[in-house]
Amino acid sequence: MEHAPQVPAGLRALDALVSPYGVVSGVSEPRRSPLLPHSYRCSAEVGEPGVARGLGIGTRAQGGGRAPHSPDLARFLAVAEAAERYAGCDTLGEERVVASAAELAGTCLEPERFPRLSAAEYAHPKCRLVPFDPRAPIRWVRGTDLRTRRELWVPAAMACYGLADPMDAERFCYLISTGYAVHTDPVEAVLRGALEVIERDAVAVLWLQRMALPSLAPAALGDTVRHLARELEQRFVETCLFDATGDLGVPTVYCVLVAPHDPAVRTAVAAGTGRDLADAAVGAVLEAVSIIEFLHEHQDERREEGAGPVAVEDMTALTAASRYMAAPERAAAFGFLLDGAGDRPSPATAALPADPARALRQVIGRLADIGARPVVVDRTTRELADCGLTAVNVVIPDLQPMSVDPLAQFKGHRRLYEAPARAGHPVRAEEELNPWPQPFA
């Protein structure tokens, strides 16, 4: 049995964020996972900064933490993720300008890099996004180019997913928490934000392009992954892991959990990035388990509310598509990954350095190889800084966004068609892309 991971003593300062009127308004007691009895889970609720500061946001969000063997680490991770969610609220009060991209040309992130929908997606009568208009005034905030270290203006809609009162012209991007990270080490925060953007790029491309990824044996990924897979197997859940590293060379694992006897949640997916494939796999498995448990725990609530089926085109809730795709009758949609997986062994994937500065330089270099421009936006509020945290949002518009909106899959973005070719996979045209909704949540 492995030893429980410990929370570093210096990071317990995050408890200062927890208060009925604080950044984190409440934390649940850590409890054992139903599917992983040697793992713990915990949730933390973000306070309501919009109401408290008169900004009219009034939204509630939660952070979650999971850890094998350690309730303390699960609690710590939940508080940290809640702090990350808080950083995405529109409460920072940072400098902003209102201008068009044409007016800021040469000093702003180039619009030609921005992800875009296809013409067919924009033409759908229920499409919720609009094409970016370089002549329309929008709000911009300061960011830093990670390659040149120069300041530039970034659309506020891309820099703050909790942006208050969005203008019509700002509805060109999908608002989601991708790229956000908090950490006591600013460099590690930036690295983790970049890794998440890369992970979501892989998730979006592999699903839409139906890429038959190389398979990974859990036993070959270290003791932790092997123990997690064994516990799931004892509960009749099969763990299928795939190497989704792709053309950027950043260790990425895609996890598909299959519960063949479950009448409601047959299939769930998640992904992870890390310093190596073993690290990435642990995160992917724990996240996939959280999806299964969430869907089961909220199934009764939906039944009590009398919630009926939702049409695919109306799926706007974060977990709506994952619930839809988890149903047994849609198990065949995952066949492009699962069928013949054993015949697709994974090649060796090099690990990133342990030192965050060296690892970040490698990641930036690999992004530069494909012509991408990664930008970091500082989202550190006073409350987080007082606890020794740095909060960032890493924006890499050249990569493929992961969207759970079935009508906004960014099928017009060139990355969707370049990435498979660079990774040695066939490239499907728009009309051949995966018709099933994105099951990731």
Keywords:
17% strand; four-stranded antiparallel beta sheet; six-stranded antiparallel beta sheet; Double Stranded RNA Binding Domain; 29% helix; 441 residues; alpha+beta; YcaO domain-containing protein
Enumerate how many helices there are, as a single number.
13
The global form is globular
Q: What is the number of domains?
A: 3
The parts where pLDDT drops under 50 for at least 5 residues are 50-59
Biggest beta sheet summary: 6 strands, antiparallel
Strand content: 15-25%
Order of helices and strands: EEEHEHEHEEHEHEHEEEHHHHHEHEH
The percent of residues in helical segments reads 25-40%
Structural class call reads: alpha+beta
Terminal CA distance reads 31 Å
What is the radius of gyration?
21 Å
Count the E strands.
Answer: 14
Mean pLDDT metric: 91
Structure write-up:
The chain is 29% helix and 17% strand. By secondary structure, the protein is an alpha+beta fold. The protein has three domains: 10-88, no CATH class; 97-201 and 354-366 and 389-432, no CATH class; 212-304 and 311-343, Double Stranded RNA Binding Domain (2-Layer Sandwich), CATH 3.30.160.660. The strands form three sheets. Strands 5, 6, 7, 8, 13 and 14 form a six-stranded antiparallel beta sheet that branches. The chain is globular, with a radius of gyration of 21 Å.
